[in-house]
């Protein structure tokens, strides 16, 4: 429907076709009911009256499902149950799920604001049955809730059912039709539709089934069944009841599931429109508080008037809708730990809001953050994570706005340089102001393609990192045609080729197994214990199932060679989650395989090592022995990585783990911090926090859960972009019972009590960009070593300071001593000379203070050296011209000891004669000459003398000091001269300067 038609519909609020008998819905429905009450009535009905269990909304990004970018329906968190990979925690549940649709199959981003009911963020209320009830109960409860609890007149409702499909070989769902008839609906309000409207599928394969939709007529109580599913804005679907009873196979066929489920979705925004008598969600209390807040903070612009299409000629009302919609989505995303840096779609929405704030609502900064407070106040009671994470929300919005401003400023400068063709359209309100976007725009401007083909789109993606939305935006700015499907086709081809190459490279030798070899059982890697003497890692008896050498399966590997073996079981940890693999040995009766690395290929654990002793034979038995010291160090470091992540979050609020690495020598955590950068005081505070946790000797808890359980945890750290397994998720938890908790999913191995870390200290911090910092730390014996190194260095500095005063007349010796001490601050993370970062910073400050004292003393001494040298030059260095006139041309030898020689000090020593001084320090040459007024004439003055001689040798410029006469005082600009050329050029300059004064004075 055209936008102007929709605008008229909103204003008239009635159906023109049925104007003679249509009435306003407000006569029938209590329009003063709040959305909060609507949501609560839904939950109370199913939880209190129908005995459903409440499950809280999952985060808006699925952490156990890589197939969708955002949670776009209420069923996402129950996908494992539908697939049969999980056992349901409850047989029937209900909730209100936060959903986002800005990517993938469901993308409403570009529609938002143009109509009254599409949103990037919405709430999907739903009830589910996992074998407890099916069609009849689902239909009966839905009808009772709508007509008895919400009191919607039945003559405003229509229901649909699946009309069958010959290709699927599934007939019409007459069972559902009969259920609706038994409830009391007439045939003309029970409508059949095909697979497009009434057969729900999770994806290309997987659980699916027929569905029954309930539609609401906003304006008429006379039958309009012929207009259902025709796209009318006043006759909309509000509830979908899905009967999951089939499975779509990979070949496209359909088969019956052993268990049948119910999955329903009732949109809160659409239901609220119905109950409050509105045609647009933006006119309900879900949005009107935000629209009011926008005008309250920008009262210099017109109030929101609800206009659409052509009537909203200046797009003011559209901007109100976009901004109010996007703010809700932003707050929901940031509260759930999504980081714009890791999610470009969220970043684009944020930047769109910043652009609207500046260009439409004339707020330079802080407006988006201010509006976020209204969302938290309105929705925080329902979704407490919004209130809990308000500081994080604010910090990230501030950070992103600062980045946006910097990028926009730089991009606008670049845009001015681009000579736009006639194809360019001056519509850049929502330009993605990133360097890569501008570079891509430049390329298209230079190459002038007629369209953005699939190959070109892939180049823009591969070279500049642009996603399909950015490419679409680019095509609109440059007025070029672009079909996103062509990029999808191209990317699928590239991925297929990449998978094929990966398969050939890494997995080709496993193709021959054909499933006749069981996957390696590695569960024993978690089987260790602790007693009074320390940690015990039990040996494991295993059998050699395969031997691999040169990408071939062999029956025997000879002693003295390297090979790889697959065992039936192992207790070795294979590299995962950033933790390095175990080392150790496979002990045979007459030899051993010393394991150097462990690799997981398709769940086969491959042990790679060197054979000592006799041959390794297929089918032989061995003892699997893990290197105790290496494993324990890894465990100390991995648990400490969790503590470090939690400690940084505690003091900085808004952070995001980017990556981590755990070895038996050190741990590394790269983390993005959105706010002020880490300081050395922050590092000290982090060290102190972790030290306290170590001293408290807190037991490290390990809990096993699935995706259902994962979403139920509070204060859990999840890595944005990480896809966790659907089941057998290990939750590592350290809770001091006070105000510190480290809780996150992890497949690594950990110590059993924090006291076993023994010691901890951060040893280095390095910036990796605008927001990311890389931290390295050590634990246990290496942390103790670092502290011991620091103490020894402190002791040596104290000894040195005691002798400092007695040796200030020997600056070279002192500088060498300080240099030697500073060299001990340089180390690699694997060195034995490591130091705590806090101690290193304090020591560096101390050494810099000592250096300054030496330098200041030295400067005074060296300045005295200049005076002494010039006094000596007055005695022996004054020369006479042919006419017996005195002058001096002198190389200031003491200048080599200074960072910058004060030539004015040197020339002042002899004010009564012409003098030219040359100085050389730090590979830089400079010169100064002074000529008393009585010696200056047309043939000879300071500028002529300098310019014609020394400056010409060193190819440098000359100038008079500011405010002085160049004929009397002239300086040569300093020039770099390598030491190897210095003596030759100095000799030449002295000679030519002397000849000039002899000829012209």
Automatic annotation (TrEMBL):
Keyword field: Aminoacyl-tRNA synthetase, ATP-binding, Ligase, Metal-binding, Nucleotide-binding, Protein biosynthesis, RNA-binding, tRNA-binding, Zinc
Cleaved signal peptide residues: none
GO (cellular component) term, any one: mitochondrion
Record-level Gene Ontology MF annotations: alanine-tRNA ligase activity; aminoacyl-tRNA deacylase activity; ATP binding; tRNA binding; zinc ion binding
Cofactor: Zn(2+)
Note on how the cofactor is bound: Binds 1 zinc ion per subunit.
Tagged with keyword DNA repair: no
EC annotation from Swiss-Prot or TrEMBL: 6.1.1.7
Residues of the Alanyl-transfer RNA synthetases family profile domain: 33-789
BP terms from Gene Ontology: alanyl-tRNA aminoacylation
Binding site for Zn(2+): 638, 642, 746, 750
Family: Belongs to the class-II aminoacyl-tRNA synthetase family. Alax-L subfamily.
Domain description: Consists of three domains; the N-terminal catalytic domain, the editing domain and the C-terminal C-Ala domain. The editing domain removes incorrectly charged amino acids, while the C-Ala domain, along with tRNA(Ala), serves as a bridge to cooperatively bring together the editing and aminoacylation centers thus stimulating deacylation of misacylated tRNAs.
Subunit organization: Monomer.
Stated role: Catalyzes the attachment of alanine to tRNA(Ala) in a two-step reaction: alanine is first activated by ATP to form Ala-AMP and then transferred to the acceptor end of tRNA(Ala). Also edits incorrectly charged tRNA(Ala) via its editing domain.
The protein's name: Alanine--tRNA ligase
Organism the protein comes from: Rhynchophorus ferrugineus
């Amino acid at each position: 429907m055209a936008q102007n038609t929709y605008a008229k519909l909103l204003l008239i609020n009635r159906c023109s076709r049925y104007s003679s008998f249509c009435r306003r819905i407000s006569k029938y429905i209590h329009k003063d009911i709040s959305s909060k009450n609507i949501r609560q009535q839904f939950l109370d009905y199913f939880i209190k009256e129908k005995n459903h269990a409440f499950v809280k909304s999952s985060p808006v990004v699925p952490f156990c499902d890589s197939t969708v970018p955002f949670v776009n329906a209420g069923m996402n968190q129950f996908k494992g149950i539908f697939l049969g990979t999980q056992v349901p925690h409850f047989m029937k549940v209900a909730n209100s799920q936060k959903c986002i649709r800005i990517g993938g199959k469901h993308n409403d981003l570009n529609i938002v604001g143009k109509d009254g009911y599409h949103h990037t963020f919405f709430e999907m209320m739903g009830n589910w049955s996992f074998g407890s009830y099916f069609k009849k109960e689902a239909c009966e409860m839905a009808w009772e809730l709508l007509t008895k609890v919400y009191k919607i007149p039945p003559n405003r409702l229509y229901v649909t059912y699946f009309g069958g499909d010959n290709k699927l070989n599934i007939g019409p769902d007459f069972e559902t039709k009969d259920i609706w008839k038994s409830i009391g609906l007439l045939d003309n309000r029970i409508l059949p539709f095909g697979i497009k409207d009434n057969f729900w599928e999770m994806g290309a394969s997987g659980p699916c089934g027929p569905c029954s939709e309930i539609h609401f007529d906003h304006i008429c109580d006379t039958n309009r069944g012929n207009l259902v599913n025709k796209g009318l804005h006043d006759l909309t679907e509000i509830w979908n009841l899905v009967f999951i009873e089939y499975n779509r196979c990979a070949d496209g066929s359909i088969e019956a599931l052993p268990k049948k489920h119910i999955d329903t979705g009732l949109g809160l925004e659409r239901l609220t429109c119905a109950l409050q008598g509105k045609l647009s969600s933006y006119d309900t209390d879900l949005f009107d508080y935000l629209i009011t807040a926008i005008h309250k903070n920008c009262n210099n612009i017109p109030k929101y008037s609800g206009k659409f299409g052509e009537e909203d000629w200046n797009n003011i009302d559209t901007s109100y809708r976009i901004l109010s919609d996007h703010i809700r989505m932003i707050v929901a995303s940031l509260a759930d730990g999504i980081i714009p840096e890791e999610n470009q779609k969220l970043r684009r929405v944020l930047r769109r809001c910043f652009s609207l704030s500046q260009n439409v609502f004339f707020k330079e900064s802080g407006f988006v953050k201010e509006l976020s407070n209204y969302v938290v106040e309105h929705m925080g009671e329902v979704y407490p994570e919004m209130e809990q994470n308000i500081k994080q929300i604010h910090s990230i919005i501030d950070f992103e706005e600062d980045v946006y401003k910097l990028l926009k400023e730089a991009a606008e400068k670049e845009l001015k340089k681009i000579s736009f063709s006639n194809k360019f359209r001056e519509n850049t309100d929502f330009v993605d102001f990133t360097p890569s976007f501008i570079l891509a725009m430049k390329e298209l401007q230079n190459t002038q393609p007629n369209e953005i083909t699939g190959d070109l789109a892939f180049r823009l993606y591969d070279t500049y990192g642009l996603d399909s939305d950015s490419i679409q935006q680019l095509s609109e700015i440059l007025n070029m045609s672009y079909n996103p499907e062509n990029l999808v086709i191209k990317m699928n081809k590239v991925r297929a080729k990449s998978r094929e190459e990966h398969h050939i490279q890494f997995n080709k030798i496993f193709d021959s197994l054909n499933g006749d070899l069981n996957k390696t059982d590695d569960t024993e890697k978690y089987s260790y214990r602790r007693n009074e003497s320390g940690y015990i890692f039990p040996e494991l008896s295993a059998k050699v199932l395969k031997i691999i050498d040169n990408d071939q399966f062999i029956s025997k590997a000879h002693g003295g060679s390297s090979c790889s073996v697959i065992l039936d079981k192992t207790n070795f940890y294979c590299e995962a989650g950033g933790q390095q693999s175990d080392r150790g040995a496979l002990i045979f009766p007459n030899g051993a395989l010393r394991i150097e690395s462990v690799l997981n290929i398709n769940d086969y654990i491959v042990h790679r090592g060197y054979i000592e002793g006799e041959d390794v034979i297929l089918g032989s038995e061995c003892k699997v022995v893990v290197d105790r010291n290496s494993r324990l160090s890894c465990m100390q470091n991995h648990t400490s990585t969790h503590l470090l992540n939690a400690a940084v979050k505690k003091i900085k609020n808004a952070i995001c783990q980017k990556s981590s690495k755990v070895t038996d020598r050190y741990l590394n955590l790269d983390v993005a911090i959105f706010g002020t950068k880490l300081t050395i005081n922050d590092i000290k505070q982090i060290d102190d926090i972790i030290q306290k946790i170590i001293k408290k000797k807190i037991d490290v808890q390990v809990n096993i859960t699935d995706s259902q359980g994962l979403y139920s945890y509070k204060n859990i750290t999840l890595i944005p972009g990480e896809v966790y397994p659907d089941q057998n998720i290990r939750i590592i938890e350290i809770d001091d019972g006070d105000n510190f908790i480290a809780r996150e999913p992890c497949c690594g191995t950990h110590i059993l009590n924090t006291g076993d870390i023994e010691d901890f200290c951060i040893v280095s911090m390095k910036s990796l960009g605008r927001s990311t910092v890389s931290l390295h730390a050590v634990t246990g014996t290496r942390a103790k070593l670092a502290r011991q190194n620091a103490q020894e260095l402190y002791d040596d500095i104290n000894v040195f300071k005691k002798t400092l005063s007695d040796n200030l007349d020997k600056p070279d010796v002192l500088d060498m001593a300080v240099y030697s001490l500073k060299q001990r601050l340089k180390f690699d993370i694997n060195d034995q000379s490591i130091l705590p970062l806090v101690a290193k910073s304090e020591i560096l400050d101390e050494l810099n203070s000592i250096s300054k004292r030496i330098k200041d003393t030295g400067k005074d001494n060296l300045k005295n050296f200049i005076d002494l040298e010039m006094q000596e030059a007055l005695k022996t260095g004054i020369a006479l011209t042919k006419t017996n006139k005195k002058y001096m041309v002198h190389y200031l030898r003491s200048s080599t000891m200074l960072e910058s020689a004060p030539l004015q000090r040197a020339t002042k020593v002899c004010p009564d004669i012409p003098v030219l001084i040359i100085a050389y320090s730090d590979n830089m040459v400079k010169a100064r000459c002074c000529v008393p007024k009585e010696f200056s004439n047309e043939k000879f003055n300071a500028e002529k003398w300098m310019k014609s001689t020394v400056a010409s040798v060193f190819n440098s410029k000359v100038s008079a000091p500011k405010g002085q006469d160049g004929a009397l005082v002239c300086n040569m600009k300093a020039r770099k001269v390598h030491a190897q050329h210095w003596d030759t050029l100095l000799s030449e300059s002295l000679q030519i300067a002397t000849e000039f004064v002899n000829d012209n004075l």
